[in-house]
Design goal:
With 82 residues, the chain is an alpha+beta fold. Helix content is 28%, strand content 20%. It is built from two helices and four strands. The strands form two sheets. The chain has a two-stranded antiparallel sheet with strand order 1-2. The longest helix has 19 residues, at 63-81.
Length: 82
């Protein structure tokens, strides 16, 4: 979506393709607001603009941690019911 700006050369309104203050802009995929291209988040809806920033970080635990937690849970349940 291009903004309208005053063109002094021909004295008419024209499309400003450069965006806000001469910097390039993109459209927020969440709310449709024009934001600066180098912005990490939309100022309107505050969602992240890039996919890798919006995804939660994966925290994979090592197998031995999961095994130890499982064995500890089994030991606790055995102690509780015996």
């Amino acid at each position: 979506m291009a903004r309208q700006s005053w063109n002094d050369e021909d004295g008419d309104w024209g499309d400003d393709e450069s965006g806000l203050d001469g910097e390039s802009t993109i459209t927020c995929p969440h709310c449709g607001t024009e934001v600066y291209e180098d912005s990490p988040r939309c100022p309107s809806c505050e969602n992240y603009l890039s996919l890798e920033d919006s995804l939660p970080t994966a925290t994979n635990k090592p197998w031995w941690v999961l095994l130890g937690a499982g064995l500890g849970l089994l030991a606790f349940l055995r102690w509780l019911f015996v």
